Amino acid sequence: MKCNRLVLALALILSVGCARNVPIRTDMSPEICIPGTLHKAERLRCYSAVTLRAMLWVSDLPGHVAIKHGVRIYRIEYWTTNYDGQPTVASGLVALPKKVEPDAVVECLHGTTTLRNATPSKPTLLEGVAGSAVFAGGGYLLLMPDYIGLGTSRAMHPYLHAKTTADTSIDMLKAAHAFAGTIGVSWPTSLYLTGYSQGGHATAATQRALEALNDPRFQLVASAPSSGTYNLADLIFPFALKGESSAHSLYLAFMVRAYSAIYNQPIESVIKQEYAVQLPVLFDGEHDGDPIMKALPRNPRDMFTASFLDDYDNGRPTWLLTALRENETYLWTPKTPMRVYYGTKDVDVTPEESVQAAAEWTKRGAKVELVNVGDYDHDGAIFKSVPMIRKWFDEVRAQQKAGKKAAQGLKALRSVYAAK
After folding, report:
1. 3-class state of residue 14 by DSSP
2. What DSSP character marks residue 187?
3. H/E element holding 191?
């Protein structure tokens, strides 16, 4: 049965109803590199609602998701700012519902990948197409940034660097706003944020930056991070150092490689020489997780230098711990309602990350609901949360529509009485 579903998935992905890689707009020269400026756009694929329903059946999503519309999928490229302050071009996916104007925007931030092409704007069933089905198929305008260093970008990926991630995500919102105008699509001002794993960290970082920005084009209505990392220094780093997940050495090496460049610190000050020399190649965007994990020790502590471990174990300061603290995403007060999703059997990201972050935000006066999706591991919890997040966004969207309708009715009634 599983094999049959995979065969059907491949057939469905190939059965597209519009031309692929059709240039829409390329109008910005390298000299014009204002962050948030649209650089290029291509139409990739179209799917009917029937095809999308079949795809979600193939994916065996644990929960019903109503697919009302077919979708059109685009890749956009846009200018943003890298960690060093230099302009660079990033890419991402834009998905629009067919034959209807979207009435809300969802920005969905993806989880960890080491492959440049395993990103939303190079859509596969589980990366890009399923998200398009869930949200654009429900009438939302969907955005999924690839992040710098992934998708069409050849730069180093600034893994778990909160500011760069937030800047890139917000610049995609600006570029998508411009893109919508070029193809005659009305831009909805209501914005919903969600993201999973690394994207949970990205969701919190982007929400914090958006609320500080207070741009009227992007009115944040609800936020739903899933299985994310928020307290990097005191929770996820010591948790990952224990190596309960086979991927923990990969996560830590990916992070150290990025932070060493961002904070101008030698990798060898933290990672043993025999592994440090491999990291630039292992994380060049061309290697999948399996060969990377085989090249690194199963026990993450075996990857770190004795001097770093001695400092860390004895509570002495290190540049890496300082960097981790600078990239936390939980010590602030959210203004937007949030639901924080997690699974109790997650060994990749400790459930305590979600529990602690939700408690901290609640203590600060934020409107936050902690959602335990059940006894699921990392991937299972993310998969389980998707229909729940879509359902919550739909409920909030319906409440917004009802509120606007009531306000319009009251305004009309007042006009009638004023005329009398």
Report:
1. helix
2. P
3. strand 190-196
